[in-house]
Amino acid sequence: MKLPVTLRGTLVVLCAGYLLWGPAQSSADIVAATLAASTLGIWFLLQLITILKGYQLKKSLTASVHAPEERIFSNSNITSVLKLSPISIPPLYSLSAKIIFSEDSIQTTTFQLKGSSDKARLITENLVFPHRGEWKVEKILFSFEDLFGLSKLSWEIQTHSAAFRIFPKRKLFQALPILSSSQTVGDTIQSHQERTGDPFDLKKYHPSDGMRKILWKVYAKSGELISRHPERSMTPEGKVLIFAAATRRDDDTVSMALQYMESLDELDLDVYFASLGLKKSEQQIAITPDQAENQALQTAFEANFKPEEALIRDVQELVDFTNNSSDSSTISHLLVFTSEQSAREVGSIEALQALGNYLNLQQIQPIFIIREEKQSPSKSSRSKFHHFIYDETTPELNNPEHFPRFLKDCAEADWEVIMQ
Question: Three-state DSSP class for 125?
Fold first, then answer.
């Protein structure tokens, strides 16, 4: 059994012992002896009450945490309820309670309870969750102590089942065009690797083209032999691959990706959704907006651009799942939603660039959809085109504010970028 000893109580006992074996014994000081004996008597009494009543409370007290029934959004003020079973606290004593979340970024209040009640006690607390995710209550800390601080008994109740599902706050973004991610190869519809479409493209004449493909009118005017060339033929399929490269605090990017998926779902298109942290959180590829929203919550605490291999594994899982779910479709494009902040930080830039290179090896063209940050009024107003200009005179190459490295990499690799 753990003794409910506190630092203050230990100092009081030492002082009482000094009085009892010091002045009281050597000088026959009655006042010192009485004060020491009374102090020790009160200390022992408090220790006894704390042990008996404290362990009784520890054995009988039950507690549970309840979240609001309505949907909870990040950065919103919500009210949680801590429910305690009926308890009786003796005079000169108090019981303190504090909710502890698995993530230490949530600061909670320590509540002190006094008196007795034959009904369950309900303690309300206002909380603000900084980002999306499933915020789990790890435990509830309890402390039973006297008002003098001489004795204290602490214990905890594990409540792993309690959790707050925090959804990203939805915002209305500009509508994006439908960007198909796949193409079908058939008898008359060929792969984009071979030109077997209608002969609408033009090229310089080659003897293998034959005489019938020569544009004689062009030859009569320019004297140069030009022949018709089959255009690339492909048929977009109703399949769209969406990957949300958003960290735990990037709720707006997730909201934009979910909004786009919902618009595609209304058109009865096949949509496959994955978010950063998919493999680490052991989640499945989402094919409905509800599944995608739930996945975005489950992966929030694992959403990190480092290491780069984790990001690529998440995308590889999305591509493999889509290939196994389709018949004759070939994935040609993949939509990557991210934020301007991520596209300006060196660590995330390297991860996104590695992702683009990996997709190129898979013969998949990445389409980066970047959510623009709102510019602060305190900053100098510059043209949006400044973000697309590479200034070779910029001395600080790793400064994300003056060197749009990611956009430069996209231009060199011929990757499509959509600023939203």
Answer: strand
